Amino acid sequence: MITKALIFIATVSVHVAGSTLEATDGQDIAIPFGTVKLERVEEVKVIFAGEDQKKSLIAIYCSHVYVVPSCTPVKTHGVSLQVEERNVSLILQHVNISRSGHYKAQAFCGKDVDEATATLVVNKASFPSSRAPTHTSTLKPPDSSEHQGLLTAAVIVIIIIIIIITLVFCFFCKWRRILCFKKRDLESNSSDCLAVSMNG
Question: Which helix (H) or strand (E) holds 40?
Fold first, then answer.
């Protein structure tokens, strides 16, 4: 009875691959968890706990050789899990400060589990004061909304000028017509007067 009970007890071994790793913001980094101390690797899970201590499952590897029906691969953007023979590594692309924290890899072989942990510290990218970062040296593209605003203002000013010129021209023409009509009236009145006096 005791021997049967011992058969179902899973063994868990814990080893630390690399206590603390450092990376700079924007870099790619590999976290080596080392060689798994199991006969074979059927499944690997990686759990991440950030500064807020909230744990999340960020990667699951399922072996193609030793198929485990309950294993479903999990992939996170920018995270990949490499398992070659019994060596486990986690690849993180373009890390940022939010990737700082504790990583735990769990390798499974049946009911046996092997665990390895690592801590990653992501530092902000620092640039020497004499040299500016390369991405800031590129020219800033012109702001299209600013150009549209200037263009709209120019069009409005041109329209206002055209309206003012038209009004002035119309007023001038109207004023000139009035003068012409008055002049004609005066001429016609004077000719009528001349005709009356000649007839009288």
Answer: none
Tell me the residue type at 97: I
Of the options 2.60.40.2470, 2.60.40.10, 3.40.50.300, 3.30.2350.10, the CATH number for the domain spanning 10-125? 2.60.40.10
What is the residue whose two structure tokens read 């003012």?
164
Q: Where are the domains of the chain?
A: 10-125, 152-194
pTM exceeds cut of 0.85 = no
**97 or 9, greater pLDDT:** 97
Element (H, E) at 169: helix 144-199
pLDDT digits (tens, 9 = 90+) for 3-60: 333 333 333 333 444 578 899 999 999 988 888 888 888 899 999 998 888 898 889 9
- The residue written with tokens 């398992």 in the block is 83
